[in-house]
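> forwarded from #structure-qc
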């Protein structure tokens, strides 16, 4: 009864916002229950005595289930708050709060709670990825810059890139062939992980556009490698980012030519058969369909990003053309001859105005080019990064089908054929030869290893699918970049058009006024009369 009254008090008392924030931070993603071990880690990290924490837990978990829900968590926070206020550890005290706000305990920040929770999940549940999107982003920050001068001999010139990694604290130069060597080794070492594809080689020459596209692709490639919690800890990745000198790709292949794949050294390789259930296999088929659909959607968004960038570049070129032609008009003197203009000096004055306004169109062109670069490096690159991630998962599925599932089925067929043959001999009172028995035993051993590989590949595929799911959080980030870029760009355009408008209005007003004066045989003062010989602008 007392327990019911206390829970009623919690429901009537004012729940601090901290409680719900703490619950969101500590609650595992796959469950609404908080295990005791996790709760104890978080509370003790907030400088609460272990004995006090144990006593509070026993009050909140009277059934000894070793886990609590949201209401029990709120109760534990309230009791912690009471103790820190110097009150006795008695849940009856909570009945006195009525509609008052419950006490807020002093614990670690919610960001640290999330970190503790992530580490706990990774340590206790190997089937859970245990990383948030922000944690994956914080693993590393990659910069790829094209070096200005080509390297190599006269007949074998090549581009090199400066690669910077915050995680490794390194800055090294790499050519495309170095990436090829690295890719071959890392793919052989981690065949069941998300390894993105490299951009293709150039068949005939390399234009500036091709080189820039390759640079972007290589940056995305390394970003995905270094945002993978397993790959970034590997010796091959460290070697690529930290080794100085030439021919790094060839040196990597030589150094790791006898490397074994992850199945041979992963701690869950032998136990994956117990970790992968029939639900995992069903989920695998659904995820393949979802990834295919998501890839189709993201490719459409990629086209949108390319179109936006193209339109902005076209606008920039149009503004350059306007500036050029206005300058051309300002230098056109034929219309100022007495035969064409009589006593009218309108054209002469217009030339001066064109000379003043042309730089503003050049400024618009420059702003538009900056806008196009922001669109390319922002929204479009974000979409492209996610496309590379999704495509890597599709390629991973194809690798598994080709190198694991198919081999497993062939080995299974061999064993069944041999066992059928053995049964046929036994029915005739005969026995297999020692050579045949050895061959059957060898096939059995191969099948057992392939079955383990099959389950381990499914175990990895499930973790990689979780990695894709976590990276879905970058979609709002992409839209935010798009909105911010468009707002900034259009505000810049508006300001430039707004600054240009008074001069254009003055030009139009003078033109009409001067024509009227000619018709009436009188002269009117000009509305805007800058010095025709001056290069100054009303915008400066």
């Amino acid at each position: 009864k007392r327990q019911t009254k206390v829970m009623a008090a919690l429901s009537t008392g004012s729940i601090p916002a901290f409680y719900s924030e703490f619950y969101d931070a500590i609650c595992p993603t796959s469950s609404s229950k908080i295990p005791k071990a996790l709760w104890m880690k978080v509370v003790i990290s907030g400088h609460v005595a272990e004995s006090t924490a144990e006593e509070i837990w026993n009050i909140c978990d009277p059934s000894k289930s070793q886990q609590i829900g949201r209401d029990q968590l709120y109760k534990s926070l309230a009791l912690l708050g009471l103790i820190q206020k110097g009150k006795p550890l008695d849940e009856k005290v909570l009945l006195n709060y009525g509609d008052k706000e419950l006490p807020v305990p002093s614990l670690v920040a919610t960001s640290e709670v999330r970190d503790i929770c992530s580490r706990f999940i990774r340590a206790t549940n190997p089937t859970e990825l245990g990383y948030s999107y922000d944690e994956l982003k914080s693993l590393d920050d990659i910069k790829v810059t094209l070096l200005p001068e080509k390297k190599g001999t006269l007949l074998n010139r090549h581009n090199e890139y400066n690669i910077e990694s915050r995680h490794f604290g390194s800055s090294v130069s790499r050519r495309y062939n170095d990436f090829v060597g690295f890719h071959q080794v890392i793919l052989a070492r981690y065949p069941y992980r998300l390894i993105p594809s490299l951009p293709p080689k150039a068949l005939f020459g390399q234009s500036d556009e091709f080189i820039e596209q390759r640079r972007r692709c290589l940056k995305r490639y390394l970003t995905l490698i270094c945002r993978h919690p397993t790959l970034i800890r590997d010796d091959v990745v460290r070697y690529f980012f930290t080794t100085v000198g030439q021919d790094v790709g060839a040196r990597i292949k030589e150094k790791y030519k006898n490397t074994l794949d992850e199945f041979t050294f992963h701690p869950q390789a032998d136990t994956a058969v117990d970790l992968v259930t029939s639900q995992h296999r069903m989920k695998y088929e659904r995820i393949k369909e979802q990834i295919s659909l998501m890839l189709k959607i993201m490719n459409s968004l990629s086209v949108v990003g390319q179109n936006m960038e193209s339109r902005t570049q076209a606008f920039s070129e149009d503004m350059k053309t306007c500036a050029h032609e206005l300058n051309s008009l300002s230098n056109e003197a034929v219309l100022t001859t007495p035969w064409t203009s009589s006593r009218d000096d309108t054209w002469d004055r217009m030339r001066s105005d064109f000379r003043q306004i042309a730089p503003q169109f050049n400024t618009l062109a420059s702003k538009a080019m900056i806008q196009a670069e922001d669109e390319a490096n922002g929204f479009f690159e974000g979409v492209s990064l996610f496309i590379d991630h999704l495509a890597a998962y599709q390629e991973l599925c194809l690798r598994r089908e080709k190198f694991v599932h198919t081999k497993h089925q062939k080995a299974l067929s061999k064993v069944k054929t041999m066992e059928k043959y053995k049964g046929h001999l036994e029915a005739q009172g005969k026995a297999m030869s020692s050579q045949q028995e050895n061959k059957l035993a060898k096939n059995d051993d191969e099948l057992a290893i392939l079955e383990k590989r099959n389950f381990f590949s499914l175990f990895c595929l499930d973790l990689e699918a979780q990695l894709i799911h976590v990276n879905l959080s970058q979609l709002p980030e992409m839209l935010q970049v798009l909105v911010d870029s468009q707002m900034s760009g259009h505000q810049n355009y508006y300001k430039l058009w707004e600054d240009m408008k008074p001069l254009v209005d003055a030009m139009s007003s003078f033109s009409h006024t001067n024509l009227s004066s000619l018709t009436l045989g009188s002269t009117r003062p000009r509305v805007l009369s800058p010095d025709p010989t001056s290069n100054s602008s009303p915008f400066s």
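QC bot note: The longest strand covers residues 160-165. Strands lie at 34-35, 67-68, 142-146, 160-165, 170-175.
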